[in-house]
Amino acid sequence: MIKLLLLIWVFSFSAVASDTNEITEADFRSVIKNFQTTFAPEVKQKHKAELLVYGQWASDSVNAYAERDMDAWIITIYGGMARHKKLTIDGFKLILCHELGHHLGGSPKKGTNRWSSAEGQSDYFATSKCLRRWWKNELWVIKNAPDYLKDQCTQSFVTKQEQILCQRIGLAGKSVAEMFQEIHQEPIPQFHTPDLIQVSQTYTLHSSAQCRLDTFLQGAICPVSEEIDFTYSDEMTGSCHLSAGDLRGIRPSCWYVPKN
Fold this sequence. Notes:
Elements: E1 2-4, E2 15-16, H1 25-47, E3 50-56, E4 64-69, E5 72-78, H2 79-82, H3 89-104, H4 119-135, E6 140-141, H5 147-156, H6 160-184, H7 209-221
Parallel strand pairs: 2-6, 3-5
Antiparallel strand pairs: 1-4, 4-5
């Protein structure tokens, strides 16, 4: 078994997008079941692998990880993460999407094994591909999106439904980033205060809470179709990219350096 441990001390019809931080065991198990039902067929069809998702509700560990065992693609997530006071149900869904991103996120990859996408790339996959695929046929009312997020989503998308989906994804990212911030005692991340660090080479491990929020936001506002998969052969396919002339939705320089 090739095992990747990702310690994260560190991610209906006409419904209100979830902004509660009280995830019950029933919520936990329902979300995991829906996630597996949604994505297991894709993994089977495109990759000839079985997606297995294990939820350990009783554990207080604030942790999730992805691993592979032959043709089994495994995600394990613990109740301690789901119960964190900063994590909403939508944020919990983003965490599952992040772990799926290690399997499906494409390049850049982590340097520690042959198959896992980098942490930042898994974040970018979560908001630009996974949550869009999961939620695209749902409708919601968004009550608490900040004006900056609304403006960013309006600039990227034409239809109201696309804009609201973008806002919902952005709020899920905010929940996850705030969880990381509290755990690491970092400055509070905000949509309008991007991380100004510019790395000299792509950083493949977990970055700051602000940098992760920046990545979540850029994934949410990238208008490239969620149906165009990322690949391991190049870093442009499926993404917004400077070399393609894109100025919005690009992976932030606080962790990512484009290949020439």
